[in-house]
Design brief:
Layout: H1 19-38, H2 43-46, H3 58-77, H4 104-122, E1 130-132, E2 138-140, H5 141-167
Antiparallel strand pairs: 1-2
Helix pairs in contact: 1-3, 1-5, 3-4, 3-5
Length: 172
């Protein structure tokens, strides 16, 4: 049994809203889309790299997005020094590796926890608030939101292909 046993609900972002509402709802839509792509699959299917020659898996994407949420909201926006969860200096793509040993329930719980923490860190902040991104370059919360939406959208495209190859399921 997988950590994603039921299909999550997704709410379409509004067609007309203020900037913050648009950014929040589009980011949540893309978070929910990744969960949707992982729904109703067992652990083996979540670990299946189905688009050769790539070794990319749905479980690897979930672990990667936990790292991305953590990096941009905890470290860049809030200035925390949260250590990586799945990668190391020796293996900078570690979230995608050794998945046969990975605990899927832990990975999904961690991803959900990082999303919840990201929401808390962004709550009440101005989109103009500045954090320090990679190489200590200043970035606004607005930029972080847009980057996160782009990151999820790109990886959700990967998830579409992986899911279709795993069990034939297609859709947005």
């Amino acid at each position: 049994m997988s950590a994603m046993t039921t299909t999550p609900e997704r709410t379409d972002p509004p067609l007309i809203a203020d900037e913050r509402t648009m950014l929040d709802t589009w980011l949540d839509f893309h978070r929910d889309t990744l969960a949707f792509k992982c729904a109703d699959l067992d652990d083996e299917q979540l670990r299946t790299a189905s688009v050769p020659p790539s070794g990319l898996t749905l479980l690897g994407l979930v672990r990667h997005m936990a790292e991305v949420e953590r990096g941009w909201f905890r470290n860049a926006l809030a200035g925390e020094e949260a250590a990586p969860l799945y990668y190391t200096e020796e293996d900078p793509d570690g979230e995608f590796h050794d998945l046969d040993k990975a605990d899927t329930a832990e990975a999904f719980a961690t991803w959900r926890a990082e999303i919840a923490h990201a929401r808390e860190l962004a709550l009440g902040r101005s989109l103009d608030d500045i954090g320090l991104g990679r190489r200590k370059n200043p970035v606004s919360l607005r930029w972080i939101y847009i980057h996160m939406i782009e990151e999820y959208a790109r990886h959700n495209g990967h998830a579409d292909l992986i899911r279709e190859c795993v069990d034939g399921v297609t859709g947005d």
